[in-house]
Amino acid sequence: MKTTLDNAYLTVQINSMGAELISIKDKKNTEYMWEGNPKFWGKHSPVLFPIVGALKNDTYQYNGKNYQLSRHGFAREMEFNLIENSATKAIFAIASNADTLLKYPFEFELQIIYTLVKNNIQIEYQVVNKNAYDMPFSIGAHPAFALPKEFEEYSLQFSEKEQLHYNILENNLIADTTKELPLDYSNSIALEYSLFENDALIFKNLQSKTVSILEGKREIVRVHYEDFPSLGIWTMPNAPFLCIEPWLGYADTVNCTGNIFEKEGILVVQPNEQFHSKYTIEII
Asked: For the chain, how many structural domains are there in total?
């Protein structure tokens, strides 16, 4: 089921499968989201929960028992319920069930809240721990933005002047190796496919809390992620899109212990408490 939000600036569509944002159009009918062509990547903007990235051997340990979770978790493959809807706001929710408890032995509720405010789409995550004990989790976004012109005509601009160090992925896990991504005088980096020859660029900590996509010298999209310390940037070879991914957590490191509570970047929400975070996509 698709839900449409609309205001004087934008029209947005969300699919109830995964509560996935699938379209952002301005009033000139320009599409800003990747179309989801499976030739390259069949997703648009999946939510990553209860893990971000891959686990070592797709396995983690909790209370002395091994559990299996595939890359990025299961929320993106679940049908969400639309629990509130207006012209400019929609709230989607899922809860733990018998299937999720086999992979993730915690009772939870996850809400994803979309709100249109002028030329901005606010995306909020609310995670509720329904257990009498601590619940570990990660959560992240994975929006893919359409780049209809040649990839090299685009660049990324960071809001702060900083030294950008990203971690290399090794068999989908975060290696100890880091590289620097040099910024030019305008805090920008020109896009080229060679940047992604080892998969995504993983920034564990950034001073910048806004990243913009520029087409030539013109900003087209800004992603604001004040609540998210980490960021992934990714595309496929020769694909006409770029993902800007605010994360709370990331893949296992190559030397991880496998204990979920020792996982680098893991979040913990206390019994009967809730966690809240928000990021914003701004269409320029």
From this structure: 1
Amino acid at 45: S
- The H or E element containing residue 99 is helix 98-103
Q: CA–CA separation, 140 vs 73, rounded Å?
A: 10
Tokens coding 69: 């979770």
Spatial separation of the C-alpha atoms in residues 127 and 275, rounded to whole Å: 5
Positions in the chain short of pLDDT 50 = none
The CATH number of residue 145's host domain is: 2.70.98.10
Residue 198 has a pLDDT of 87
The span from the CA of 36 to the CA of 55, in Å, is: 25
Residues 111-163: pLDDT tens digits?
Answer: 999 999 999 999 999 999 999 999 999 999 999 999 999 999 999 999 999 98
Structure tokens at 271: 């019994």
Which residue range(s) make up the domain with 63? 2-283
